[in-house]
Specification:
single chain; 239 residues; alpha+beta; Beta-Lactamase; Arc Repressor Mutant, subunit A; 2 domains; 5-stranded antiparallel β-sheet; 5 strands; globular; transcription; Transcriptional activator protein raiR; DNA binding; transcription regulation
Length: 239
């Protein structure tokens, strides 16, 4: 696995992509740049329409569909309930079906380690950006710690471009968040309490509430959690 891969060129390629097929070649370039086994992006609309690109072997993709693994895959089930990146080791693999699925995935070269970034988009869109590899726990911990921010950034670039390239999928333009609103939502996204956010920003909790409500209104969110999710999905904040 790479120590400090430069991603600037790949981000530029993403911005310049003209078709969904371009995302496939970029996912292959990412795999090679980071020297891991796989990079995968998977998009699901509220109506069940799907789009995917990545480096999984076609035989595994077909087997996944034929076996109905979507229903029992702990990565899908676990990430759908989360907003933050997830290391596969922290998911629930306790059921017999989940363990059998994991053995099958490893046998097909998916790797024994994985890191998935859930992304929420407009109109119920849900996407996953995943990197997987075969290595020991210590090496994987070192890799994810070193590249977490770059992977999150790349995930949101992939999602934005996928939305841009599909007619009718792009979200409506949102009012830009102010720097203070971005700071407040970012700190909430990484787990700070409101009191901790206010203290960190050297403002009162009342003022913080004003920033949060303003951001919520701009994002069209129902509550603070929804606002954080929308800000992450639109790339307004990166955590």
């Amino acid at each position: 696995m790479a120590d400090t891969p430069a991603t600037d060129g790949l981000l530029e390629r993403l911005e310049q992509a003209k078709a969904l097929e371009d995302l496939q070649t970029i996912s292959e370039a990412l795999r090679d740049r980071y020297r891991v086994d796989h990079f995968v992006y998977h998009w699901v609309s509220a109506g069940g329409e799907q789009y995917g690109c990545g480096t999984y072997d076609a035989a595994w993709v077909q087997r996944y569909v034929d076996k109905g693994y979507l229903r029992i895959d702990p990565v899908i089930q676990g990430c759908y309930q989360r907003f933050h990146p997830v290391d596969w080791k922290r998911l629930d693999w306790s059921s017999r079906a989940a363990r059998a699925f994991r053995r099958d995935a490893i046998a097909h070269g998916i790797g024994n380690q994985g890191y998935s970034i859930p992304i929420r988009g407009p109109n119920g869109q849900f996407a996953l950006f995943t990197v997987s590899h075969n290595c020991d726990d210590a090496a994987w911990e070192e890799f994810t710690t070193a590249h977490r921010r770059d992977l999150i950034l790349m995930a949101h670039y992939f999602n934005k471009k996928a939305l841009d390239l599909e007619p009718g999928r792009s979200p409506e333009a949102a009012q830009p968040l102010s720097p203070r609103e971005v700071e407040a939502l970012t700190l909430l996204a990484v787990g700070y309490s409101r009191a901790q956010v206010a203290q960190t920003l050297s403002i009162s909790e009342h003022t913080l509430r004003v920033y949060i409500e303003s951001a919520r209104f701009k994002l069209g969110a129902m509550n603070t959690t929804h606002a954080v999710a929308r800000a992450i999905a639109r790339g307004s904040i990166v955590v």
